[in-house]
Amino acid sequence: MVGVTSVRPLLLASIVIVLASVSAPSLLTHYFDRPQAGEGAAAPEPAAIDEAEASGGRSVAIEAERDGHFYIDAQINFRPVRMMVDTGATVVALRQSDAESVGIRMRRADFDQPVQTANGTTHAAEATLDAIAVEDIEIDGVRALVLPDDQLSVSLLGGSFLSRLERFEMRSETLIFEN
């Protein structure tokens, strides 16, 4: 019968072998990729791997502008639209001119949804966007409201997009989207 004391060294050796086999490739790559003495400056530190990238997900970092807001250049229905991220907005809100630039045409009669804005109550038209992409993150079938240009100074990336991300968070002056 094998005693516990004779199994421990074998278990410990197995753990060491597994750890070495997992870390050896990156250690060797790090060693062979850095410049040798006399070849130039020291190699830069490797960048930290984002959890989303390591798991195969996508991550987008957005820096705050001078006014403290987060602006993005989104692709809506494969056309560019400048937007402000608004975590307090329930849905994506598009200026009518932005909606038209991405192929959404509204008639006056379509503006039948009363909505509360910072400027008071107005009427919006409902729409469904084929897709919104922010860099490598794309969400299909996003609910939106279209507002007259005089009621909205910039289109808003709101909850109907944000709630479909795996997660988003703010770190210091950076907003991070993960999907």
**Fraction of residues in helices?**
10-25%
Principal-axis shape equals globular
What class would the helix/strand composition place it in?
alpha+beta
**Largest sheet entry:** 7 strands, mixed
Order of helices and strands: HHEEEEHEEEEHEE
Which CATH class of the largest domain? Answer: Mainly Beta
Architecture of the largest domain, according to CATH?
A: Beta Barrel
The N- and C-terminal alpha carbons lie at a distance of 52 Å
Count up the domains. Answer: 2
Strand content: 35-45%
Count of runs of 4 or more consecutive helical residues: 4
Instruction: Note poorly predicted spans.
Output: 10-55
Q: What do we call the CATH topology of the largest domain? A: Cathepsin D, subunit A, domain 1
Number of strands: 10
What's the CATH superfamily of the largest domain, by name?
Acid Proteases
Radius of gyration: 25 Å
Summarize the helices and strands and which ones pair or pack.
Elements lengths: L3 H30 L17 H4 L4 E5 L7 E6 L2 E7 L6 E4 H6 L11 E5 L2 E15 L2 E11 L7 E3 L1 H4 L4 E5 L2 E5 L1
Parallel strand pairs: 3-8, 4-7
Antiparallel strand pairs: 1-10, 2-3, 2-6, 5-6, 6-7, 9-10
Architecture overview:
- The protein has 179 residues and is of the alpha+beta class.
- It has two domains: 1-46, no CATH class; 51-178, Acid Proteases (Cathepsin D, subunit A, domain 1).
- It has four helices and ten strands.
- The strands form two sheets. Strands 2, 3, 4, 5, 6, 7 and 8 form a seven-stranded mixed β-sheet that branches. It has a three-stranded antiparallel β-sheet with strand order 1-10-9, with no helix packed on it.
- Mean pLDDT is 78; it is low at 10-55.
